[in-house]
Specification:
- The chain has 19 helices and five strands.
- The N and C termini lie far apart (about 80 Å).
């Protein structure tokens, strides 16, 4: 209303208008006051120094995903890992400048999403001048232990809970109700192609928000919006990554196989972690109980939806954090539990228990103070910007990384010369080696053999190495298997395929080079079948020098 109208109103009405204007201006200033804290969180936590491929188990995994994406290898037939064709967003490397820049933006967006999510919780119980710096401190404290994918999972869980809390209120009606679930489902399909497990949990959260409808009509409306958006987003992201639509079923089935077999094959629980298990169990029970309390007064669909979101989020955190139980993995549970408990605290009339549980969860995350070193932060961003803008500088970084990797691998010159011009795969996991020596990388789909931990994945690798080009070369590194396993038992079908279709040509104490030959094995002949008991010694029958003895065990149920 223009100012000259004020004289025509009563004093009470004039004061009401002024109060309303001041309130709107205050609401406008609050977001503006949070921007410096958000900018600080991004500057301190969004990205580290530029990384290049390195030797080693975990570095070679991320290097392989970045190299495969840059080379546009077909995910599904050629690449099957826990990361998808957009996996470079979660762990960007300077192997490709456009993908490195996209990874920076992805990390910045993840920090922004988590900041907004946590700030929305703290804003309900703290005044804005306190909520913003508290959010900044919280994100900065946990940043060194968490990657961008988990930031997105935590932010998505808070968003799903908030959507369910207000969905059936007076502010949301009709088609607007359908968009939170559809947005989560659409984003989940992108995250599937970043990291399959992260995408699954975000898809599950979107599914809960979608189906938590108060009526059949609302459910149909939600599905009409969510399902087409899910399919369209997945297909569009897949095509933009340079993939073929016909490879989607193979990739989905293979990724699902890796996810299903992970818990049984990769479980590693040290005996001194029982206190953490007990703490995780207590936090889970507290979160579920508080979720029931926080959802009171809402309709049945909203109550069930809130409980399901809490259960789905914490179940994912438990599996991700405690299957391979170490400080690097368990932070995923405590971050997700802390985020859920912060949201519950913002919705309860008496939030003391929820805040205490959230604090107990978040203090379990290893903290560091390196991100508060402003000189280090400035160096990280300056080197990242220089790597993006100065191609010569990026080339020097790559050359330095190649030299360091070669110094680690020490591949003999005779093997390097023999491998040039041929497709090369590396066993058991050093995917960075072809990049270090500028060789033509042609891996088996599960390019780190320890991850081919189910019969189906082992069979996929065996078939791939048999049908590889006739000039295929395999470089095998003599190293111990992970978790003190027997390396000969890791991938039995694949090793048999190597023995029958490849021949060693060069070797040294560390490396062996195999070349593709015609099939050297005949059809197997059964020698003996017997039933044995546990701890029974089984003598092996004698075989000739040109035979391979294979023993298969079928355990009793």
């Amino acid at each position: 209303m223009p100012p000259w109208h004020l004289s025509m109103l009563s004093p009470e009405r004039t004061e009401t208008i002024r109060v309303a204007r001041q309130r709107r201006l205050g609401q406008l200033r609050h977001p503006l006051r949070t921007l410096p804290w958000l900018a600080g969180a991004i500057a301190l936590t969004a990205f580290s120094a530029p990384r290049a491929p390195q030797a080693g188990l975990d570095p070679s995994c991320t290097a392989g995903i970045n190299i495969a994406s840059s080379a546009r290898l077909r995910f599904g037939p050629k690449i099957l890992m826990t990361f998808g064709p957009w996996g470079f967003l979660d762990t960007p490397m300077i192997t490709d400048w456009s993908r490195f820049f996209a990874g920076v933006l992805f990390s910045v967006a993840a920090v922004t999403a988590l900041f907004v999510a946590i700030y929305s919780c703290l804003r309900r119980v703290l005044i804005p001048p306190v909520a913003a710096p508290a959010t900044f401190a919280l994100i900065s404290a946990v940043s060194l232990s968490v990657n961008a994918g988990l930031w997105w999972c935590c932010a998505s869980a808070i968003f799903a809970l908030s959507a369910l809390a207000v969905r059936h209120g007076p502010r949301m009606r009709g088609w607007i109700d359908a968009w939170p679930g559809a947005a989560l489902a659409g984003f989940g399909t992108l995250m599937l192609q970043v990291k399959f497990s992260d995408g699954l949990v975000i898809l599950a959260l979107g599914g809960v928000v979608t189906i938590a409808a108060s009526s059949p009509r609302s459910l149909v409306r939600n599905l009409v919006v969510a399902v087409p958006l899910l399919v369209l987003t997945f297909a569009l992201a897949w095509l933009l990554a340079g993939q073929s639509l016909r490879d989607i079923p193979v990739w989905l089935l293979g990724s699902w196989e890796i996810t299903l077999g992970y818990s049984q094959a990769m479980a590693d629980r040290p005996p001194d972690y029982y206190l953490r298990y007990a703490l995780a169990a207590v936090l889970t029970l507290v979160a579920v109980a508080l979720a029931v309390q926080a959802s009171r007064g809402r309709d049945r669909a909203a109550r069930i939806g809130i409980a399901l979101v809490v259960v789905v989020t914490l179940e994912f955190g438990l599996k991700h954090g405690f299957t391979r139980d170490d400080a690097g993995h368990e932070v995923s549970f405590f971050l997700l539990a802390g985020g859920v408990l912060l949201w519950l605290a913002s919705r309860l009339r008496r939030p003391a228990l929820a805040f205490t549980a959230a604090a107990l969860a978040l203090v379990q995350i290893p903290h560091g103070f390196q991100q508060f070193d402003l000189h280090r932060t400035r160096a990280q961003w300056s080197t990242s910007v220089q790597a993006l803008l100065d191609q010569d500088y990026g080339t020097r970084l790559q050359a330095q990384a190649r030299a360091e990797a070669r110094g680690h691998y020490q591949l003999p010159p005779s093997m390097i010369n023999a491998a040039r011009g041929h497709p090369v795969s590396v066993d058991p996991w050093e995917a960075a080696l072809p990049w270090a020596y500028s060789l033509d990388w042609n891996p088996t789909p599960v390019f780190q053999s320890y991850a081919a931990y189910t019969p189906a994945l082992d069979r996929i690798n065996a078939e791939a190495i048999i049908t590889a080009p006739q000039d295929q070369i395999v470089l095998r590194h003599r190293t111990q298997a992970i978790d003190e396993r027997n390396p000969a038992w890791e991938t039995p079908r694949y090793l048999l395929a190597l023995a029958c279709n490849y021949h060693p040509t060069l070797s040294d104490p560390t490396w062996t080079m195999l070349i593709h030959t015609h099939g050297r094995c005949s059809n197997p002949r059964t020698i003996e079948t017997r039933v044995i008991s546990a701890r029974q010694t089984v003598p092996t029958p004698p075989v000739g020098p040109d035979h391979v003895l294979i023993t298969r065990f079928t355990p009793a149920p």
